[in-house]
Amino acid sequence: MEENQRREKLQAIFQKEGKRLYHLAYRLSGNEADAQDIVQEVFMKVFDRMERFEGRAEIFTYLYRIAFNLWCNMLRKRKKWFSFDPGQLEVYLSSRADSDFPGKQMGERQKKVELVRSALERLAPQERFIVVLRDIEEHSYHEISEILKCRPGTVKSRLARAREKLRIILEPYLGKNYE
Amino acid sequence: MNNRKECQAVYHSGSWEDLRQQQDEKLRQHVRECPFCQKRLNQWEEIHTWLKEYGKVQLPAGWEEKMINRILSRQRVPSFSRLALAGTVSVAVLILLGIIFRLTGSKPVTVVKNSLPVPRIEESEIRQGGTKVTGKETGGKSKTLVEKPADRHRLESKLHLPQVAPEPLSQPEEKKDKMVDAVILRKEMEKSEKADVSSLSREEVSARAVSSFGLAGNNTFQARRAVKVQAADQLPPHLLIKEKSQLEKIWSAQNLSAPLPAVDFKRQLVLAFPRVSGEKRYQIVALEEKDNILVISYMESSGEKDEKEILPPYQIFVVNQLPQIEFQKVERLINSSGALPAKGKEQE
Question: What three-state secondary structure class fits B284?
């Protein structure tokens, strides 16, 4: 495949999947810079291995898997790994409020978002990935199982475990009026 | 109403959305009536809305264009980790090559020239047979002077002297020449002769090997167990000096404080016999004249290096010029009469 053809093909894939991939990367990493890095790396890998994408109907499963692996590597390098400790959420929230919103009161919506972000960070990477895919992006169990290369039943059980963890972490904040 | 089976089903369904897909009317009825399951489902419902809120992502302005340009221009900046990895791999390869060279004994190709330094000792003081050298270089301390084969070859090439059985210029490290002297010789002799020579002093041992200016007449001792006449290529690289200028050069290279011996080159010549060649040590033990043949007997040993002993590289003898010269290697030193040979002087 010639260079121009490769570029055209890459642009086509990016037009179709770039936005979706960026959303996924942002929901996994929780910040813009990491999300952009992940997307860039994913498409560079796609550019290097363009021949593999010939004739593939659903390319997003492949892209999602690459993005997930890249994000896992990123976490491993940074050792950004929280333990499952629901008690620290308040401390985290107050520290985020001070650093990200200096001199301003964090909005109610923003509080919810930060709570979810910090709760997700306390899940294992694969659990977070499944929650994002199922509860936010609403992929089917079958699609998730294809991305993770496991059975749908495994996806269901992992999702149930992840949801229960989320519920335990967020339980103290549920039922309160943040509006 | 608390039905355990239905509660578990609700628990595993995970969310209201999943539960809605359940077609089991009995389960729906349970959820409507069980406060525990109702509370749980309400919590999940709230978490679900929070997650949806979290999932709303606003793309930065001009993001797509910027990103596609970044990807297409492939502005992949080498990260520090990549550079560090490349550096580590390079260093590892160099270390590995070094280990391989060391293990295989390979060395970088070098051209051996005749410019290797001859061991020099300034204002040295050498006692005959003795051996300890003091001088400016050593700061008054004993210093080992190890003769190297390359040094000798340099000397020979400089003097344009005839070489007999020259050694290869490059030799392995372990085959470097070693010093030989009368002490080592005596040790060798003691091994073979035991009590026969053990009582001899160093000078006496040296004297056995001596031939003086006139060899005729009372001529030292016989070497009874001569092995055979050595072929030229089996001999150590000795020199037969027939000119005074050559003698002066080699004499100066010997670094001896003694004056140059007077030699009548019309009738005499000077034999310079190496003390060490390769791993072997040599000692002239007898010089005899037999029917116009000069028979030079020498002992060969492979003693260990004695770094305390320092001797000039050559044993030098002044002998009469005879039509034929033969070398013979001997193993034992026994006088024909059983007595010690007459004393002479080895030329310094």
Answer: strand
The whole-angstrom separation of Cα B273 and Cα B275 is 7
Suggest the residue from B43, B45, B54, B65 to mutate for an interface test with chain A (most A CBs closer than 10 A). B54
ipTM: 0.83
Look at residue B26 and tell me whether its pLDDT is greater than 50: yes
Check if B76 contacts A (Cβ < 8 Å): yes
- CATH 1.10.1740.10 residue ranges of chain A are 3-78
Which CATH architecture fits A3-78?
Orthogonal Bundle (1.10)
Domain A86-173 has CATH 3.30.1360.120: no
3-state secondary structure (DSSP) of residue B277: strand
User: How many whole angstroms separate alpha carbon B276 and alpha carbon A108?
Assistant: 97
Query: Cβ contact (<8 Å) for A116 and B44?
Result: no
The mean pLDDT of chain A is 80
- pTM of the predicted protein model: 0.46
Counted across chains A and B, CB pairs separated by less than 8 A come out at 90
Name the closest residue on chain A to residue B40, using Cα atoms: A167
Residue B169: DSSP 8-state: S
Of A39, A77, A112, the CB nearest to B50: A112
